[in-house]
Amino acid sequence: MAHSVTKGSEAMNIEDREAIIRLINQHGYLIDTGRLDQLHEVFTADVEYDVSDFGGGVIFGLEAMREWVLALGDRNPVGHHVTNIVLDETTDGTVHSLSKGIGITAEGAARSVTFDDRLVRSDAEWRIARRAVRARRTPLQP
Question: CA 100 to CA 23: how far, in whole Å?
Fold first, then answer.
């Protein structure tokens, strides 16, 4: 979903940026410790969670998201790490975030993904309303 971006906007202050970065980082801690009952602290109740690259399609809502994570079982990485977070405020008042995710499997293999998020603010708190998880499979071409 394309949004018009207002780079360098003063509307998103440093406190917003810190809260959003903390929120994005918190996802891995919740998943890795099995605290799926706390996903509402990161995502909206009606979250769109696009895991099409992993055969899951677009999942709608927290309960369906929890069920999908549980169904992954041992295929779910044991360690989720986020880096390279880039935030841009959009003209509709949401925030667009791109970040890199590194997942470590039980066997020790590392996988890389890109998280493409749309965040919304409600009741003075930020939440991820849409996340697309994109697999990185092919090397860059010169």
Answer: 14
